[in-house]
């Protein structure tokens, strides 16, 4: 008898940092367990799928990046389906489901997913399952887990409908056996342990069935490594084990490649740090630094104010050493790493990571390739269970990756941004192979920074500003640590750092070189028409791109004194006037020379009674308060003078507060309700007159 063809569907993903790709791969893998065939493709792999002729259900998993932009590997697809020449029945044969990933801390939440869905529907496609909008601001899994749970029933329903719509067999022919599409969902592994394998409040238990026998576990409260009832006594819904797909071996071959990652690209440049200056004073504020890069030897690094660039930083050397010891591979740190696909792997779309060259050392791999500070995903935790010897620790790993343990995962892993290394340190009986880290840890990403200068004023130089990030200690992190890139940069320039009020020495210590890559931003730039007024909102280091805006404006005024220049406003805020008022002298100089017409500054932590005589006790604390005080002028510029608004800085609080303030201002000025005010701001965004450069 001929083999029965398994029902098929298509999975397409667009992913910037790998999250959407990982979900899509998980769907494809689980499909096999359910007797289905999932054809997995990235949206840029046009040769592997054809939506114009596709009859099977299609599942889209897409993320959003930047200011609501599609991921790089989905950009061409989005452009293609947005073509106005496509007819309204172009996709009338298509049925789809869509999961969109985004972050409500940023503007244009899930914008790529919404764009794809809107165009699919405009082109006639039909939805067979409700769209999911996962929010990384509160936890992607809150939407992803239930969405995936319901997806399989929806797919089977869509396939059943397709089967029933087929032409009935001719009389006399024996009908082909119809696949059983009503089979129950694959069950999760149900786990429960007796009291000896769970941590009880106020009770000591001794583990007697592992090599850690004799170690007494005492739990007085829940923690990363120990839970309390009811979780510690509950059966668990644990996800399926991710199939291993890589073979990794180490070989001592003498000399191996030690260069910095994939830095042979034409767009990546090694540039010297020309100058480093601390911009803040005192111990009560964050440490803000200005770095000046010498890019004179790289004419292709032609940037504009508003552009940003990537800094390629390594993992911290001490953490790499800890990871080598943790894996038991310290003596093999200089061995060459060989990575290949397992011959019998069951992972859909499996491939050796493209960012790992074939002749790198283990030390290089852990230093430049893998993000060992990444927060471990639940799939990684599930895989770690299989490599954990201690029963209590194994149970806790199962809890943290289970449906029932979602709150604990968020509390002890996700919210404190616990790193993979910190997590492994907390579970000493877990001994994962190197291959598991390569399969589950993401690529070490470069860190973006905004240009804080104009080449018209500083030819051959590029300035940028950053706060040295301090990450506090927590359960699972015994000691605080600095941010990966900001801490690395601080260590690089610490000995040659110039402090406020001190004269720079001409014979100061030579500063090192770093690798950077330009990220042009074609929208976050001053108006091309100099007569257009614009407003800048940039508290803290968010003021950085606006220094470039104003430097460029000043040079343009000097070159064209007869030209008409629109009104300029800057809303700046910080904690203390005498502590972290960044670029104070330069900003006040812009005002005195007429480059900046209005400088509105507020200090959130200063006591008004201690400020200069005449200070009001109701002085505004945050930039949104100053916006409200100047609401008529701001509204006039945006609503009647076709002006532009730029916001730069913190996404989680400041950008949201500023947007809410703008909604209230527009509502008051136009005498409309909140919904209409939001539509007005949305129109400004569409016209590229309300722009944001924000970060989490």
Automatic annotation (TrEMBL):
GO biological process: homocysteine metabolic process; methionine biosynthetic process
Domain FAD-binding FR-type: 266-527
Gene Ontology CC terms, in alphabetical order: cytosol
Record-linked Pfam families: FAD_binding_1 (PF00667), Flavodoxin_1 (PF00258), NAD_binding_1 (PF00175)
Protein name per its UniProtKB record: Methionine synthase reductase
PANTHER family reported in the protein's UniProt record: METHIONINE SYNTHASE REDUCTASE, NITRIC OXIDE SYNTHASE-RELATED
EC number: 1.16.1.8
Organism: Scophthalmus maximus (Turbot)
Gene3D superfamilies registered for this protein in UniProt: 3.40.50.360, NADPH-cytochrome p450 Reductase, Chain A, domain 3, Nucleotide-binding domain of ferredoxin-NADP reductase (FNR) module, Translation factors
InterPro entries referenced in this protein's UniProt entry, alphabetically: CysJ-like_FAD-binding, FAD-bd_FR_type, Flavdoxin-like, Flavodoxin/NO_synth, Flavoprot_Pyr_Nucl_cyt_Rdtase, Flavoprotein-like_sf, FNR_nucleotide-bd, NADPH_Cyt_P450_Rdtase_alpha
GO molecular function: [methionine synthase] reductase (NADPH) activity; flavin adenine dinucleotide binding; FMN binding
Keywords carried by this UniProt record: Amino-acid biosynthesis, FAD, Flavoprotein, FMN, Methionine biosynthesis, NADP, Oxidoreductase, S-adenosyl-L-methionine
Presence of keyword S-adenosyl-L-methionine: yes
Positions of the Flavodoxin-like domain: 9-152
Cofactor: FAD; FMN
């Amino acid at each position: 008898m001929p083999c029965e063809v398994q029902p098929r569907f298509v999975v397409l993903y667009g992913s910037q940092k790998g999250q959407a790709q990982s979900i899509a791969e998980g769907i494809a893998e689980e499909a096999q367990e359910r007797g289905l065939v999932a054809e997995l493709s990235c949206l840029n792999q046009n040769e592997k799928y054809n939506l114009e002729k596709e009859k099977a259900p299609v599942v889209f998993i897409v993320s959003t990046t930047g200011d609501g932009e599609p991921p790089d590997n989905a950009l061409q697809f989005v452009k293609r389906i947005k073509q106005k020449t496509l007819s309204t029945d172009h996709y009338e044969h298509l049925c789809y489901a869509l999961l969109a990933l985004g972050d409500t801390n940023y503007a244009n939440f899930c914008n790529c997913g919404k764009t794809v869905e809107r165009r699919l529907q405009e082109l006639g496609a039909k939805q067979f399952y409700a769209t999911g909008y996962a929010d990384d601001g509160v936890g992607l899994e809150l939407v992803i887990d239930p969405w995936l749970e319901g997806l399989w029933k929806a797919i089977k329903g869509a396939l059943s409908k397709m089967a029933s719509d087929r032409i009935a067999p001719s009389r006399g022919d024996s009908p082909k056996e119809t696949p059983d599409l009503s089979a129950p969902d694959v069950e999760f592994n149900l786990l429960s342990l007796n009291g000896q394998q769970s941590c009880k409040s106020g009770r000591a238990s001794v583990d007697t069935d592992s090599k850690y026998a004799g170690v007494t576990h005492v739990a007085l409260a829940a923690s990363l490594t120990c839970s309390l009832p009811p979780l510690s006594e509950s059966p668990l819904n644990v996800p399926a084990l991710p199939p291993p797909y890589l073979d990794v071996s180490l070989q001592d071959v003498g000399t191996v490649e030690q260069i910095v990652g994939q830095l042979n690209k034409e767009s990546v440049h090694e540039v010297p740090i020309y100058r480093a200056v601390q911009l803040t004073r005192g111990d009560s504020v964050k440490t803000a630094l200005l770095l000046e890069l010498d890019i004179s030897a790289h004419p292709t690094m032609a940037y504009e104010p508003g552009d940003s660039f990537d800094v390629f930083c390594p993992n911290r050397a001490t953490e790499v050493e800890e990871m080598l010891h943790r894996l038991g591979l310290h003596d093999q740190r200089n061995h060459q790493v060989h990575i290949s696909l397992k011959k019998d792997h069951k992972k859909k779309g499996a491939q050796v990571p493209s960012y790992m060259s074939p002749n790198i050392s283990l030390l290089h791999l852990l230093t430049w390739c893998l993000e060992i500070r990444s927060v471990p995903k639940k799939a990684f935790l599930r895989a770690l269970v299989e490599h954990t010897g201690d029963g209590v620790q194994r149970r806790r790993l199962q809890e943290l990756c289970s449906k029932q343990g979602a709150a604990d995962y968020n509390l002890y892993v996700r919210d404190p941004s616990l790193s993979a290394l910190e997590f492994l340190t907390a579970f000493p009986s877990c001994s994962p192979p190197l291959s598991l880290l390569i399969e589950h840890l993401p690529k070490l990403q470069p860190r973006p920074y905004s240009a804080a200068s104009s080449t018209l004023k500083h030819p051959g130089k590029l300035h940028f500003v950053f706060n040295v990030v301090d990450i506090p200690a927590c359960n699972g992190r015994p000691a605080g640590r600095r941010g990966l890139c900001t801490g690395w940069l601080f260590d690089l320039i610490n000995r040659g750092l110039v402090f406020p009020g001190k004269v720079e020495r001409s014979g100061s210590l030579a500063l090192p070189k770093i690798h950077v890559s330009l990220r042009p931003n074609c929208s976050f730039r001053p108006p091309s028409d100099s007569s257009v007024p614009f407003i800048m909102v940039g508290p803290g280091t968010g003021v950085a791109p606006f220094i470039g805006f104003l430097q460029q404006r000043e040079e343009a005024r000097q070159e064209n004194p007869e030209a008409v220049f629109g009104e300029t406003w800057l809303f700046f805020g910080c904690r203390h006037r005498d502590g972290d008022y960044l670029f104070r002298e330069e900003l006040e100089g812009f005002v005195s020379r007429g480059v900046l017409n209005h400088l509105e500054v507020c200090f959130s932590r200063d006591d008004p009674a201690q400020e200069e005589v005449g200070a009001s006790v109701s002085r505004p604390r945050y930039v949104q308060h100053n916006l409200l005080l100047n609401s008529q002028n701001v509204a006039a510029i945006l609503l009647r003078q076709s002006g532009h608004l730029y916001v730069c800085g913190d996404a989680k609080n400041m950008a949201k507060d500023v947007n809410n303030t703008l909604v209230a201002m527009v509502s008051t000025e136009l005498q409309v309700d909140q919904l209409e005010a939001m539509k007005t701001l949305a129109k400004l965004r569409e016209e590229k007159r309300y722009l944001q450069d924000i970060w989490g």
